[in-house]
Structure formats: C-alpha cells, structure tokens
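Appendix B. One record, verbatim.
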Amino acid sequence: MPQKLVTIYLTNEAYAQGFFGTSPGAAAHGHVEEHLAAELAAGWRVVNVAGFGGYSDVVTVRGWFMVVLEKD
C-alpha cells in the first residue's frame, strides 16, 4: 500500500500583536481549517498522527502535525 507523510504547520502568530480581544487575529480565534480535504477525497486515509512543536519567548506558539496517509 502506498503511503505518504504530510506535515501541517500550525502557528498562533495572528495573535502576536495583542491579546485575543484586541489583536487582528482575534476574529480567527477558534477558526477551523481543513488541511487534508483533497487527499481524503482522493481515497487517502489517515493511519498515524504525531505532533511536534514548541514555543518562543513571546506570545507565539508554533508546531507541526506529521500525518501518515495510506491508500489502498
């Protein structure tokens, strides 16, 4: 079965200019983004997910999801 590794980068940099109530990114708080729609529609399925990430000395947080996809 073919497999592929997909990485999804996540960050909260939209909030870096202020706190949730005052930053330009506040409107996107809780916003859900679909990152694998095309792959899933093409018959790929998720077989494993792992997270890797960290923080910086300021407000931002960054990280990745590593997703293993498999197709029959």
